[in-house]
């Protein structure tokens, strides 16, 4: 899990950059969300599901739940608790991600409404 926490750093840096650059591109282009309801649905999906999920994942990997830092500090009880929380997080979010990421892709490609 500690190796996973180190490896996911790139994703935790890329996600906010992608969000910010996407919003800047929307703003610069003068794109209106009311006209493009598929994009509004996709943005709501990202804001309501993926952003909170990323915040929790960041906390568990790098914030107060950083397993490497807890192990080195000798906080074995907290380390074990954070390991359990992180595995529970994965078990809960995996089915959500498996359904919603393809849905976001379909919204972006097919533009159903």
Q: How would you characterize this protein structure?
A:
The chain has 113 residues and is mainly alpha-helical. The protein contains five helices and no strands. The chain has helices at 2-7, 9-29, 37-61, 67-72, 76-110. Helix 3 runs antiparallel to helix 5. The termini are far apart. The mean pLDDT is 92.
Strand content: under 5%
Report the average pLDDT across residues: 92
Q: What is the helix/strand order?
A: HHHHH
- Based on Cα principal axes, name the global outline: elongated
Please give the alpha-carbon distance between the first and last residues: 41 Å
Low-pLDDT stretches are: none
Helix/strand class? mainly alpha
Q: How much helicity do the residues have?
A: over 70%
Query: For the CA atoms, what is the radius of gyration?
Result: 17 Å
Task: List the defining traits of the structure above.
mainly alpha; 113 residues
Tell me briefly what this model is.
The protein is 82% helix and 0% strand. It is mostly helical and 113 residues long.
What is the element layout, followed by pairings?
Blueprint: H1 2-7, H2 9-29, H3 37-61, H4 67-72, H5 76-110
Helix pairs in contact: 3-5
């Amino acid at each position: 899990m500690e190796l996973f926490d180190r490896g996911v750093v790139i994703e935790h840096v890329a996600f906010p950059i992608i969000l910010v650059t996407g919003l800047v591109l929307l703003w610069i282009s003068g794109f209106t969300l009311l006209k493009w309801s598929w994009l509004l649905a996709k943005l709501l999906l990202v804001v309501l599901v993926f952003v909170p999920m990323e915040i929790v994942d960041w906390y568990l990997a790098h914030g107060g739940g950083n397993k490497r830092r807890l192990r080195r500090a000798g906080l074995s009880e907290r380390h074990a608790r954070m390991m359990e929380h992180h595995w529970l997080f994965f078990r809960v979010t995996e089915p959500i991600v498996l359904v919603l990421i393809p849905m976001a892709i379909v919204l972006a490609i097919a533009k159903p409404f």
